[in-house]
Every structure is written in structure tokens, then in C-alpha cells.
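Build the 3D complex.
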Amino acid sequence: MRPVARRATPTSGRLGPRPGEVIDRARPLRFTFDGRPYLAYEGDTIVSALLAAGESVFSRSFKYHRPRGVLSATFFDPNCTVQVGEEPNVRGAHRRVRNGDVVSAQNVWPSLRYDVKAANQAVGRFLSAGFYYKTFIKPEPLWPAYQQVLKRFAAGGVVGADDPHGYYDHRYAHVDVVVAGGGPAGIAAALGAAEAGAAVLLVEEEPHLGGHLRYGGPEALRLLGELRQELADAKGIEVLTDSVATGRYDGNWIAVHQRSVPGATERLVKVRAGALVVAAGLIERPYVFAGNDLPGVMLSTAAARLVNLYAVRPGTRAVVLSANAEGDAVAALLAAAGVEVAATLDARRAETVVAARGHGHLSSVETSQGRVVEADLLVTATGWTAPTSLLNMAGVRPTYDEAAARFVVGAEPSPGVFATGGLVGDASPEGLVAHGRAVGARAAAAAGCGKGAVLPELSPGPHPALFRSTTHGFVDYSEDVSSKDVFQAAAEGYDSPELAKRYTTATMGPSQGKLELVNFLGVLAEATGRSIGELGTTTWRPPYAPVSLGALAGRPHEPVRYSPIQPYHEAMGAKPLVAAQWIRPDHYGDPDAEVRRVREAVGLIDVTPLGKLLLVGKDTPALLNQLYVNKWSALRVGAVRYGVMCAEDGVVFDDGVCGRLGEDRYLMSTTSSGAGAVWEWVERWLQTAGRHLDVYVTPLTTAYASINVAGPASRTLLSRLVEGVDLAPEAFPYMAVREGSVAGVERCVLWRIGFTGELSYELHVPAGYGLFVWESLLDAGSDLGVGPFGIEAQRIMRLEKGHLIVGQDTDGLTQALGAGLDWLVKLDKADFVGKPELVWQANREDYDRLVALVPTDERTVPPEASQLLGIDGDIVGRITSSRHSPTLRHPICLARLAHHLATPGTVVRIHLPDGRDVPARVAETLAAYDSEGVKLRA
Amino acid sequence: MIQIPCPYCGLRNANEFASTGEVKPRPDVATATPAVWRAYLYDHRNPEGLVTEGWYHRAGCRKFLVVERHTQTNEIRSARPAGVAS
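Done.
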């Protein structure tokens, strides 16, 4: 255990007012961090406020639990991730403090200051490259224990199951030009495109436009002021700040994640753009040396941001390592802000840092000249990384420029895709603005606006190639990968970037390579004796920056459908059943009583969700012959037939009945869940192979309310309300269809069919009259004992009757003959969908059969999906449907069973979830109730 | 997201469509051997280059289309109603 000493005197503090500061000193805010109270100003980030208060440690590192502080002071600062209230993984160097925020450190136990797992540092190489692969392989029985250990290491916040859902939103935008990045080049590109008449969306990751101008000197602020004024006067530019273009997809389809937006938690904007301009700027690269992760070691841009944007003094005594003008400027800035600059090391003259030392915070810096300089701040300015992600996603392959020591792209790397600013080259702010303006005009022209512009020259300037000093330090701060790990990976043969990346996990953490990719490549190049150009780079994939799952999901869109009879079900307190999008009555309190009502008197069930398709045309029988496994040519007007559809692999796809209403007019029904798929299936045949057929299909599923009137008294009940149809058994026999009026409602379709096994009629009533007809039936049949029954009662009765449900008693491998449909399939038809497979199936024996099983123990209803066991204990099938039959007073089941055991009378064992096995006998017929079908035909 | 030029609706996002897979002739059911039939069912080519595939404009005009698409560039060469000669 190595506690981090709380420093007696704060190393930083708030400076006097700065010209470009983004804090509002008139608006103080209060928040807590790990239980202690802190003050912030409006505009402060969590990290800037804590730094101003003297804190410098914000997290413990991923593997070694080293104390970590600020590095880049941007969104992707690797070790500033905190929990804010219920929200985990908040980027503390980006998120603005809100009054009352409760902030806590992540990945610490028991606390940020006393972290037990910091012992990982002591064991040193314990967690080196490939550690997971080497250590947690054997023995396999210990894997669950390893999982528990590794879970402890996972860095991340806490999500509570009861946390409130935020309101997340989606928006669709159609613009001519998207500009990703609102620095000088990006703002100018937006202006250039808008001048050409383009509609522009300008996206900036930070809460304010301006890029590096915001934290530059007075000249930079003056130029930014001019650009902002021009932007305010321009027409056709929408600016999204605190938003990031996370991905570029085919056809310039761009995902923009708005991290803060009025009226919602976050919003995902899906943009289709004519042209994309990537103006992402440059990200400053850290330098690899021993101790480069100590709090107090930071990038020059971080120091500039802290001083100029938040008026925070990042230290009291500084060493500055600079390889460029920006670094030199920061040295001057620090001195002017009252920081003692103890040493400046000029990397252009081979001066460098060998090591940073300190316990919990930087205390001294060892230089290449052999000096040891006392300091609490070490600022490095050693080069730049080009965040080319969006361009890579567009198929662009940036090239590594040795002289500039970074990847670069041209201004027009791909049709419709443009780049400007630091990604293309180096220039004064005015030079970047000129280039951006021209690129914006050219992007507008690519989107069909204006004539474009002449592109000024922009190319990268020379920069020393600096990746690693003479010592080893961290390459990836998110994943705790050191340069030593990269060397080790190369020595073990993982010598390509893609392999070494996965082996070491470098660039795979939350920063996603933005800070560490080029250093990783530089160190790997050094280790393998090759150049970065030869190595190539890893693949950039979306998202460019993390996106919350809430933003991806957006608002919940779960449409539900109700039958017109729903008000009745609701009034009766029916238990709702969710069946696909439909909400249906499962039962009205007592399903067994509902079964008895149907078996003994008469009941009504709302079957509105049944799919209904009207087929009109002289070739309808030909279509039906093709789609169903049975024959349809001889179907007379007024007759109904059961049909099963298979797919081309012979697997049962849907079933239903189809009735011939008139000479060229048919009504097809489908299963409730198959209604949409069958409609598309029919359309597909009619639009492709069956294009010559004269058939028109109209979906009528919701045009009708459908009511099944079932039970011995159903005919008596209907006779009181039906007009225009002779209900006598000879005139309207089983499997017939008639059209007439019910309760005065004209143009109803009546089918005499029976899923329940009783005498029954299915009424299809114009939907607007559904509730009226339902209630009329209940009124007219009160003396007959009429009442409603729900899905559960229907399922019991169809099971008693041995009627299968497609998808429950069949599965994705069940061909028609394995579903007990031998009697239906007509292999003598010339063709139908799936015929070849069924011909071959008919010549085999080895397929599972659908059988009815009767458990010999009458008290046990084996749960659906229970396995069936053979003599040797091998699995020979499974229960597909099971219920207690209130009619027969014993359990009944349908099951899929191996063919050699499917003979009636065979006894198999049902393996119950509680471990018991109960015997069951294969029944003679699928129907346990009225197997002769006498009642149906009554 | 790629866009598909529907001959009825114009240029639309691909997520309005459902892919129905490679367009290929259905073997003659009278003569097809199991090998031929199952190649038709399960063996799908996935070349780098131009493919002819079916797309169904499910969230649009509900027409089945035949689309020529380049699998590397996603360039769409043509889109026509299914069942109509090219």
C-alpha cells in the first residue's frame, strides 16, 4: 500500500482574469468530489475546478493503480474519467461543473488516496504484455475465479439498476456540407461553403468554437473575434457545439453526437451531406520517458488551456521540453502567469527529459544533460498526431510524412470528402483560414453550390521525430501499456501494428489511440528496426469518440396494436398478453372456466390479429397451388380449405385457411405473427416468378375485426343475429364460407372452421363495428351462457384437439412431414414452394415426428421445452406444448420425438427441470378430444 | 449508409429496404438433384466486384427490386423492378 500524500501547499491556483477565459467569476458553483466540498465557476470543467483548488490526482490507472492527473485537459484526457451522480465514465476534463454535482473517482478501492491495488506497482512486471493470455489459460476449471479477479481490475463507473432513464433524442438532417471541427480552418470552411449558397452544419467537440485560437495569444483572440462576427452575420450555417462527428459512413452519412442539447440528455443527429469537410485539427502527442504519467507532467496545450481558458496556474516551478514554436510560446505564457520556469529543454538541439520523479506527484526532472531540476510541473511539446479517423472511414489512407513526423492527407482525398487545417499542413492562423475558406467553397461546389475556389498551398512543416527518450515510460495511459511492453511484444513476434496492438492492448482503451497511436507506432518501429511508413497503421473505425448507448437508442419506439374490441377486454380486466406488437386478452380470470364454457355452451374470442389477405384475379388458384403444399384448383365458391406454406427448404413457414368468396375473389388467413411475412411472401411471388399471374393482393388484417364464436350453442346464437345466410348444417357445412350481415352490420365474412374443436364460426366484421358486434353477440346469447374466452383457453382447446401452432410445435428445421402434415402435402403437384425437399423427405425415415404424449403421472404437467429421454438416457426429443386439460382432467402434450420412438404406445421418459423423470406414452392420434371430428361437423 | 435509387421512389436510405440476397435462377424442381437444390438454397457467392441482388422496398413502395452493386465501392450500377428484363 502506497498512500498518496496530500500536498500541504496547493501547486496550482486561480489566476487573475485572462482575456480569453471561459469562466464566469460572477457565478460560483458548488460541487463535491469524493465527499469533499469544492467551488467552481460557471464554465469550469470538473478538472479545472479541482486543479484550481489544489487537487492534482483524479484517478488511479487501469492496471497498476498509479495516481494520475491531467495530461491533455480535453475530452480524451485518459485519466480524468469520473462518476457524476448516477452517470459513470464522465470525461472530467470536458464536462462542465453543474451546481450540486456529486463527483467521485473511479477505479479506486477503497479510496483515491489509499488505493490497495496500487500494490500492483510493487509486483512490477506481473501485468506485462500478454499477461492475460499467459496467466489465465489453465487450468480451465478456474476460469470463473479468474473472471472474478479480472472484474476487479475493470476500470469504469457504476450503473445502478434503478437509475432514471434520460431522455435521448434523434434528429435527421439533410445539408449540403458538414464541417467536422470548429477551429480557424473549420470556421472558415463553413463560411466559404455558406458564401457559395450551401446549407452548412458546423460541428465542434468543445463547448465553444475557435480551436487553438481560444487559448492562443492576443492576435489569435482578435482573429477569433473576427471569425465569430463573420459567422454571426453569415446565412445558412447551423453550429452544433459540444457535439462530435463520431462516424462517416457510405454516401456521406454522418453521425453527430450532441452531448448537451436543450430539452434532452443527448441527441444523435443522422446527417446526409453532399460533402464532408474534416477540420479536426491536431492533437498534441505525449512523450515517452520514465515517470511520464506522474501528476504534474502535462502537454503544452494542456498548460495553455488551463492558463488561458480557466485561469488556472498548473504549477509553481516548471520544466518545459519544447520541440516547436507552440511549446516555446507556452514557456513564455507560464512565465508571464507567474510560474517559475526552472529549465527549458530545446528538443531541436537534442535536449530532452530522461526521467520524471516523485511520489504521487512530480518533484524533480532529470535532463539529458545530467541535471536534476526540482519542479512540480513538466510541460512537453514534442509533436502532433493527426486525428484522421473520419477520413479513414471514408476510405482515405493518410500517408506518414517523415519530415513532419506525422500522418498527412491532401485537401481533396476522395470524392465528396475534403480536409483542411492541421490535417493537411501547417500555416499561420490566417493561412489556415484562407485554406479553409477555399476548401469550404470547393466542398459546396461538390454539393452543387457555387463554382468552387482556387486552393492555396498548404503543406506540413518540418518537425523533429520524437517518440521515446532513453528510458521506458507509458505509451498508453488508458490501458497502462509501457514502451517496454511494446518491445516485449515485438520480441515475442507480435511485430505488426495490428498484432502488437491486440497483444498489448495499446490504443484500445477509452482514448482510442488519439494520444497514443503514433507513439505506439514509433516505439514499435524502434523495436523492430523499421520506419513508421513501413509499419503502416492500425484501422480507425467508428465511433471517433465514445457514444452513449442512450444516444444510439434514442427515444423508445415500441408501437403497440389493439383490436377495436380492446375497450371490452380492458373493462373486463383481461390479463394482457403481448404477442408481437399486439396486446391481446390472455384470459379474463379463469381460463379453465372459459374452456368449459366453450365445450359446453358458447364463447367468443377476439382473433382480430389473424392475418387476412384479399386475393382477386383469375389466377389466384395457381398462386395458391404454388405457395401452399396442398391443392387449390378444385376449391368451389363458398368453400374454405386449410393450407400450410413451406419455404424452399421444406420447413413449415405459416398456416391458415383460405376461402373462395366469389368466382375470382379469395380471402386468405395467416397466423397472427405471420401476417406481415406472408403478405410479403405473396407479393414477392407475384412480383418475381409469378409476375405473369393475374392476382391482386390487399392486406385486410386491420380492416376487419375478427371474432370466433365457438361452442355447441354457437349456431343458435348466430341464428339470432345473422341475416342473409342459411345457417342450417347442410346449407352452411363445416369448411364453408358465407357473406352476410351480423347484428345488422353488412358485408361480414363468416367462416365455419374450428381451431378449438367445437362447432364454431369465425366472423370478420368491418373493424369499426367490431365492438358493436361483439357486444351484440354477448347480449343476444346471455340465456345461452355466452361469455368471452382468451388466448390461454384457446391454446388449451387446440392442444386438446391436437392442432399445431407453427413456430411452437415446429421449429426452424421442421419440414412439413415432420409436423404431422403428411395427409396435406400433395407431392403429385408439378411444383410448389419447397417441393423438392419434401419429395426427398418422403423417401427418408430419419426425421423427428410430431406426436401427442400422455404422461402417466396425472398430476405432473411437464413444462414446455422439457427434454425427452430414450432408454440409454440419450435425448430423443422435447415437449413443444403442454397443459393440464380441464376437459380430460389429465396433462396433455405435443412433442417432437425421434422417428423410431414415435409409434403409438411407445413409452419415453420426460426429464423435468427438478431432475425427476416421468414416463409418458405416445398417443394414437394428435387429437385427444373428439379425434373423429364429430363436434366440428355438427 | 448506402442509398438505393428506387425506380418508383427515388434515392432512399438502404435501411428502408430489406436485402433478399443474390438473384439467381430457381432450378427446375422436376430435375434438380439435392446437390443442385441445396447449392441454390445455401451457397451464396460473395465476390469482390459487381453483384446482382434483390432488395425489397419494405418501408417504401413495397416493390421487389433487382440491384447491381459493387461490393467494394458500394457503387450502384442499376436498380430495376424484379421480374422485368434489364
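Chain B touches chain A through 23 residues (CB under 8 Å).
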